[in-house]
Amino acid sequence: MALDDDIANLRRIPLFEDFEIEALRLLTFSAETKLLRAGDALFRRGEPSDGGFILTNGSIALEKHDDGRPAERVLRPFALIGETALITETTRPATAIAREPATILKITRALFLRILEEFPATATRVRARVAARLTHFAKELKFEP
Question: Residues in domain Cyclic nucleotide-binding (predicted)?
């Protein structure tokens, strides 16, 4: 895929739609591409995380249970997996299994934070987007008296 196509595809993901073009270029060049076969685990529930992933091809099932129940969620191309892990240490809340051959772009936390440091305008937009989402989430919470 050409660089311009990679950048256009990253912009389809809400977190990256406001990134400066040079920030997206650095992200594209620096991220690691991983190929998964059907049935391969991208990660397992409870594992420590060091970043997020972008699914560029194939599908990934997110499963919280190991008892054969159907997947809670099936992700398609251009899904961002592990967004929280881009900015903070956490553990994986689910197991991610490739349902078919899949291509993943791995973005380490170190890379993401480096981009935010090198591109302050992008960092400001990311901060505003995260703040808006947290505000919306807080309003949706219902507390019982």
Answer: 15-116
CA-closest candidate to residue 76, choices 64, 60, 63: 60
Paired tokens of 48: 């420590």
Residue 17 has what DSSP assignment? T
87: three-class secondary structure by DSSP: coil
Q: Token digits for 33?
A: 């591409």
Q: How many CA atoms lie within 13 A of 129 on its CB side?
A: 15
pLDDT tens over the chain, length 145 residues: 577 788 888 999 999 998 999 999 999 999 999 999 999 999 999 999 999 999 999 999 998 876 666 667 899 999 999 999 999 999 999 999 999 999 999 999 999 999 999 999 999 999 998 888 888 888 887 666 6
Distance CA 18, CA 20 (A): 6
Question: Which residues is 103 bridged to in the sheet?
Answer: 35, 57
Q: Which helix (H) or strand (E) holds 102?
A: strand 102-108
Domain covering 3-134 in this structure, CATH number = 2.60.120.10
Q: Six-digit token pair at 26?
A: 């650095």
